[in-house]
């Protein structure tokens, strides 16, 4: 499974990705937004195993992909995914995480999210894409807002409450996506290139 953007290749995880994945997950900046169980080193290895198992499931419900730079060093920049297994029919949960050194850099998350949303709505035939984050993660909130998503408060886990945070969910329908600023801008660019 591969999706290509201008700067990235979104592909299934391999064993070769494990050390880079563990490295950025061990960064204190990455750990800040995760619960205690999710910050243990063995958890990242378990995740890689899960991602690889999802890649061979039939029918495939979950797509958790490595974000790889297409030029230069071909570094692992982060991971992203659309997960349908625990979602209602026609819906999927979208998640993006970037290694901290790529936070806020040149709209990386926007480029990746656009590719996943287009794949979800156009290829998988989804009606709704949703995601969750903590209120303190303002980068994801801005990204969801730029895509025209609706923000919905969710029940907050105790570890977030202790930090004074809340958990939020954002949702975007296919219609919202088609009417959204980032999609319209992309369509205008495509027309201008013709």
Q: Order of strands across the widest beta sheet?
A: 1-2-3-4-5-6-8-7
The total number of structural domains is 1
| Apparent shape | globular
- Number of DSSP strand runs: 8
On the 0 to 100 scale, the average pLDDT is 79
**Number of helical regions:** 8
What is the CA-atom radius of gyration, in angstroms?
16 Å
Distance between the termini: 29 Å
Largest sheet: 8 strands, mixed
Q: What's the CATH H-level homologous superfamily?
A: Gcn5-related N-acetyltransferase (GNAT)
**Per DSSP, what share of the residues sits in E-state strands of 2 or more residues?**
25-35%
CATH topology: Aminopeptidase
- The arrangement of helices and strands along the chain is EEHHHEEEHEHEHEHH
Please identify the structural class as seen in this structure: alpha+beta
- The top level CATH class name: Alpha Beta
Percent range for helical residues? 25-40%
Organism: Microbulbifer harenosus
Domain N-acetyltransferase: 7-149
InterPro entries: Acyl_CoA_acyltransferase, GNAT_dom, N-acetyltransferase
Protein name: GNAT family N-acetyltransferase
Task: Describe the protein.
There is one protein chain. By secondary structure, the protein is α+β, with helices and mostly antiparallel strands. It has a single domain (2-193), classed as Aminopeptidase (3-Layer(aba) Sandwich). The chain is built from eight helices and eight strands. An eight-stranded mixed beta sheet has the order 1-2-3-4-5-6-8-7, with helices on both faces. Strand 1 and strand 2 (8-12) form a beta hairpin. Helix 1 packs across helix 3. It is globular. The relative contact order is 0.13. Residues 7-149 form the N-acetyltransferase domain. This is GNAT family N-acetyltransferase.
């Amino acid at each position: 499974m591969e999706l290509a953007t201008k700067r990235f290749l979104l592909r299934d995880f391999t064993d070769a990705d494990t050390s880079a994945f563990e490295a950025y997950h061990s960064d204190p900046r990455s750990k800040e937004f995760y619960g205690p169980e999710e910050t243990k080193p063995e958890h990242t290895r378990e995740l890689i195993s899960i991602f690889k198992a999802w890649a061979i499931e039939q029918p495939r419900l979950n797509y958790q992909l490595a974000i790889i730079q297409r030029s230069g060093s071909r570094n692992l920049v982060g991971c992203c995914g659309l997960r349908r297994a625990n979602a209602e029919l026609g819906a999927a949960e979208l998640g993006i995480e970037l290694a901290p050194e790529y936070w806020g850099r040149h709209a990386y998350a926007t480029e990746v999210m656009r590719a996943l949303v287009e794949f979800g709505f156009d290829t998988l035939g989804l009606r709704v894409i949703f995601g969750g984050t903590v209120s303190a993660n303002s980068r994801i909130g801005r990204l969801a807002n730029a895509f025209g998503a609706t923000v919905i408060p969710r029940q907050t886990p105790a570890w977030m409450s202790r930090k004074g945070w809340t958990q939020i969910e954002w949702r975007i329908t296919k219609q919202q996506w088609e009417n959204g600023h980032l999609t319209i801008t992309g369509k205008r660019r495509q027309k201008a290139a013709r």
